[in-house]
Amino acid sequence: MVMPIRLKDEASRLGFTTTSISQMVYTGFAGLSVSSVFEGENYVDICLKLDKQYRQDIRDLQNVYLESPVTGARMPLRQIAEIQPQWNTGRIVHRNGIRTLTVGSETTHGVLASELLSEIRPKIDKLQLPTGYHIGYGGEYGNKPKVFGMMAVALVISLISIFLVLLFQFRNLKEVGLVMLTIPLSLLGAIFGLLLQVMISDLLLLSA
Asked: Half-sphere exposure of residue 28, counting CA atoms within 13 Å on the CB side?
């Protein structure tokens, strides 16, 4: 549903334009970021908008007061414009040529996206979808294959580079082979260190 606003003749005499009215209404109902603060390590925007009780329905929109750029007088929107709710066809979003409905979510402070997904995914998997419909996951989970693929390519390039450097230094395939055989042991230690770092980071986020 859309709400087209048709300006009355009085609006032009008072200096109102469609652009100025839309900016004022958008600030009051959608909000305008005026500053920001830090809550611990989190960056939080300070948003300026009307109280929730004054932006519930179309009557609140009609009663919102605007200031005239010419006279400075304040008047309700219904006095300078006509608002008529209308239904129209929504925009169909396509992704890779497929009609897509995207549902997004933000986690609360101290909750990781992976934890939220692991909790709600069993319930989502129980949904009975009509024929031709399927559910896909994006965000952090959807980017994992791409990230792991890039990491695999970087690992292969690193191993080849290490091999060439060792071969240039020792000039002996036997010695180079012995050194290369110790690399998996170092990888195990590196993986353990990364897991430990992730666990510590999670504990710090939960305790913050």
From this structure: 20
CATH class (in words) of the domain with range 5-83: alpha beta
pLDDT, position 81: 82
Percent pLDDT > 90 in the chain is: 1
Query: What 8-state DSSP symbol labels residue 56?
Result: S
Which tokens in the block code for residue 18? 């469609």
In sequence order, what DSSP letters do the residues of 74-120 get, joined into one string? EEEHHHHEEE--B--PPP--EETTEE-------PPTT--HHHHHHHH
Residue spans per domain, the chain: 5-83, 94-208
pTM of the predicted model, to two decimals? 0.43
| Residue 57 DSSP code | S
Kindly list the distances between the CA atom of residue 194 and the CA atoms of 51, 139, 149, 156, 157, in Å, as whole numbers in the listed order.
Answer: 46, 22, 18, 19, 21
Summarize the confidence of residues 75-88 as an average pLDDT: 80
d(CA 121, CA 99): 22
CA gap 41, 58 in Å, rounded: 39
